[in-house]
UniProtKB/TrEMBL annotation:
The keyword Oxidoreductase applies. The lineage of its organism: Bacteria, Bacillati, Bacillota, Bacilli, Bacillales. Belongs to the UDP-glucose/GDP-mannose dehydrogenase family. It holds the Pfam family UDPG_MGDP_dh_C. This is UDP-glucose 6-dehydrogenase. The keyword Chloroplast does not apply. Its EC number is 1.1.1.22. NAD(+) binds at D30, K35, T86, T121, E154, K262, R327. It catalyses: UDP-alpha-D-glucose + 2 NAD(+) + H2O = UDP-alpha-D-glucuronate + 2 NADH + 3 H(+). It comes from Alkalicoccobacillus porphyridii. PANTHER family: UDP-GLUCOSE 6-DEHYDROGENASE TUAD (PTHR43750:SF3).
Amino acid sequence: MKVCVVGTGYVGLVSGVCFSDIGHQVVCVDNDQLKIDKLRRAEATIYEPGLEELLQKNIKQNQLSFSKELSASIKDAEIVVIAVGTPANEDGSANLKYIEAVAKEIGQHLTSYKVIVTKSTVPVGTGQKVKGWIKEQCGEIPFDVASNPEFLREGSAIHDTMHMERAVLGVETEKAAQYLKNLHAPFNTHLIVTDIETAEMSKYAANAFLATKISFINEVANLCEKLDADVTKVAETMGFDPRIGAAFLGAGIGYGGSCFPKDTQAFIQMGIEAGYNLKIVPEVEKVNFEQRKRLVDKIELAFSDSLKGKHIAVLGLAFKPNTDDMRAAPAIDIIPMLLEKGAKVKAYDPVAMDRAMKIMPYVDTAESWQEAVKEANAVVILTDWKEFKEIDLDVLKSKVTDPILIDGRNVFDPVEMREKGFYYDSVGRKKMSIEGDNYESIDHRGSGIYRQKLS
Ligand SMILES: NC(=O)C1=CN([C@@H]2O[C@H](COP(=O)(O)OP(=O)(O)OC[C@H]3O[C@@H](n4cnc5c(N)ncnc54)[C@H](O)[C@@H]3O)[C@@H](O)[C@H]2O)C=CC1
Ligand SMILES: O=C(O)[C@H]1O[C@H](OP(=O)(O)OP(=O)(O)OC[C@H]2O[C@@H](n3ccc(=O)[nH]c3=O)[C@H](O)[C@@H]2O)[C@H](O)[C@@H](O)[C@@H]1O
């Protein structure tokens, strides 16, 4: 099919590249000239494993092109996909100004029937607004609107798209349904055909539920710490139950990213506007923020005095591994809290340094984890990059001033950390003594070795 994708952020770019790779003829449009120039040179504008290869392949095979001109690009398209951003307003509701601008522009340039599909995450009712914005510009020219929200994750976006578990197609006519079925046919996925409002709601419900799962396991982790249980084993046990499922039961410092924080807020706002106040999701948000603060408490607890003047090495800035996306990353909350308490922070991330420093230019940076941890009083893990999982603990110990590691992502094994002589605190896991083979629990101050060193 001939497809025009408007917006080349994460969603637009990955969708456009994947649609072209499964055989559709795709043109991607963005009003950012610099992005278009770069993409035309087959250079990826986001860090996403596997993206650049597919970009190069499909441009070379003339399946994929890029343009700044919406009018020319939609002319021959059968399907126009809207994939622009929907950032949060002050009150948390979704800001639709980019959607409105694109819808009106499409309306102005519509010359023949097309299905105009919203892929961006938008509140229930937006599909009807999009229809109105297009219609007021194009008059009698026929078109259909549809909703096809995106479920990909950053960092595994190509795989998620190529092997999508399902797609929800929110439509008003049989013709639009057929167009979207044809678009998705090569993905060979489960298609749920429904009305536009239901499709729009499905996206918010899915993200809010995933966020709830994370906050739920974080609360279980907090209770595990009080009662000496291990949240990773609890999660494993729960996860084998197919009614629960193992995914998204990773306790840590709470969710970040461009979507969960913004979409939970927009969902709450949608409820308020509709006259039904959601009760669970606001608590999910509260638990999520408290999880950041709890990590700072753990760092403070590692020192008998205050954090004043302590050199803290922060490993990981991106909101999760395999992306350079810093939007709502836990590091943005945690680092200022540490600085506020008088700590000196040296930060390192394998790919997000540039983006992170645009947001936090005041933070001292290192070019490698080895440089960041040099003479550190404590090492703090904020993102579970593979590079950090593979750290040689003996090398790490030889570089730091104090062997204190506070792990916000449960990357290391507490028993091994104890054996290596680290003060090790993580999320929702037992603290171990280092004496003897009986891994008896000790108080919250971590490994016995370090306590001896302190005394
Ligand atoms: N980032 C993600 O992993 C996911 C995002 N979503 C949703 O998809 C939507 C897009 O998200 P991102 O790709 O992250 O957004 P983004 O903000 O990174 O990218 C949006 C792009 O649209 C372009 N744009 C804005 N106005 C335009 C116009 N009038 N004409 C042409 N281009 C225009 C911008 O220049 C930018 O390149 C959001 O609603 C988001 O909630 C859904 C699933 C996953
Ligand atoms: O709407 C969106 O934009 C997307 O939001 C999330 O995708 P993404 O934000 O890319 O990343 P996730 O893998 O979901 O991780 C989100 C956050 O939750 C955290 N997380 C995830 C899983 C877990 O078990 N524990 C946990 O703390 C991650 O560290 C990260 O900060 C959803 O997973 C996608 O399905 C959705 O399409």
